[in-house]
Amino acid sequence: MDTEVRQTQMLVTILDDLPSPDVNGVITLPPDTMIEPDGMVDLGTNVLELSTGTSIVGRDPAKGVFMTDAPGKAVISGTDVGQVVLRTFAIKRDNVGYGFKHTRSIL
């Protein structure tokens, strides 16, 4: 019996490639999906919420960047999502960059 979960790939180049944010500016990423940022993706004042099996994997942290102006919120968060992969992309907030390279995280 095959119990392996297969991820759907989602190339993200602009905000409209992502699901719509809720009223609090939270974009819930689809479960079992590998998000690939390509270019500078401006989230505006929105933030990302991981779902079970969601990964964010870029090709180059200089070319896969999520930018946000969200005040006082975690840019990426998740609760009880199991093992996720965050790798080879960057976050830019208040003109400060944060990179993720070869990072595996359990939230």
Output the keywords:
single chain; 107 residues; mainly beta; 5-stranded mixed beta sheet; 0% helix; 46% strand; disordered C terminus
Molecular structure report:
With 107 residues, the protein is mostly beta strands. It has one domain (8-106). Helix content is 0%, strand content 46%. The protein has no helices and twelve strands. The chain has strands at residues 8-12, 26-28, 33-37, 39-42, 47-49, 55-57, 64-68, 76-77, 83-87, 89-93, 96-100, 103-106. It has a five-stranded mixed beta sheet, with no helix packed on it. Strands 4-7-10-11 form a four-stranded mixed beta sheet, with no helix packed on it. A three-stranded parallel beta sheet has the order 2-5-8, with no helix packed on it. Mean pLDDT is 83; it is low at 102-107.
Map the helices and strands:
Elements: E1 8-12, E2 26-28, E3 33-37, E4 39-42, E5 47-49, E6 55-57, E7 64-68, E8 76-77, E9 83-87, E10 89-93, E11 96-100, E12 103-106
Parallel strand pairs: 1-3, 2-5, 3-6, 4-7, 5-8, 6-9, 7-10
Antiparallel strand pairs: 9-12, 10-11
Brief description of this entry?
It is built from no helices and twelve strands. By secondary structure, the chain is an all-beta fold.
